[in-house]
Amino acid sequence: MEIEEVSSCGEALPLLSLNHVSLLCRSVLDSARFYEEVLGFVLIKRPSSFNFTGAWLYNYGIGIHLIENPSLDEFEPIVEPRPINPKDNHISFQSADVVLVKRRLEEMGMRYVTAVVEEEGIKVDQVFFHDPDGYMVEICNCDKIPVLPLSSSFKPYETTASFRKSAAPAKCGVLFMENEMMESLSMDILNLVF
């Protein structure tokens, strides 16, 4: 076995944002319906070269990629609803109106649990529930709590323009510029609309 040693220059990867979350599901139809009707995602085209059942959904600047795997029942049969545990793995979405979220979940007959996080007098409301395959979803107003780095060396990616330019490999330069142009165009459109 040959091991290649890679030296680290001490800088993080040149990431831009979270692109998508991929989830195995028992039924693409049931899961897609949940993400459309409950969370407001929209089905989008996925590559036709895929030779497996799945679906791509998009909204809020993030994608949900569903991959059907009916054999999940062999490993984790859903005999009864599992307890909703806020400390379980989950994906979280920001909401401006958590009270409305709870009301809509009740109207849909969905089970959920709530939690309140308090930090220095600031309260954050959280609502947790499961998708059809038991994956945990959180809806919160977490933006109330400021993001305070524990390290003084923290530099958000957006503010390190020199890092962005030096970190992007030459072969990705065109794609990088296309992304920058699309971001600029999006901001211009938003400024015109509002």
From TrEMBL:
TM ranges: none
VOC domain residues: 17-142
CDD domains (alphabetical): VOC_like
Superkingdom of origin organism: Eukaryota
Gene3D superfamilies: 2,3-Dihydroxybiphenyl 1,2-Dioxygenase, domain 1
Protein name according to UniProt: VOC domain-containing protein
